[in-house]
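Could you show me just one protein sequence together with its fold in token form as a worked example?
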Amino acid sequence: MDRHTAIPTADPGQPAAGRLVDQRQAASLAGCSRDTIVRARRAGRLPHSRLYGQRWLVAVDDLAAAGLLRPEGTGGDAAPEAGAGHGGEGSAAAVELARAEARLGALEDLLARQDDELAFLRQLAADHLRRAS
């Protein structure tokens, strides 16, 4: 699959909520890193993500449902500046809230992975003690 191959549903006439964007565009819309989008996708927070060729595509409505989408970000692919638009301070606060929720989600994902690892290590230690006895 060529890197320049068009995304199948990224039709400019399509509503933003039904659009698919690549992970970099999703990160731009969400105001976070691509790694945050990857972690959210792997954790199942972006359930309509699809692998197209060698690129993951993320549904914009999944970003909103996961609390990652900036409120002003639904109108285009470029991320707006904080405080831009009609909302002023209110929209800047909404962006900061969305970023805080994204960070919280990432921390919850990390905690869940660490809990799983701890459970695995406990089981491994118990198995080792049983064999040693």
About this structure: The first strand starts at residue 20 and ends at 22.
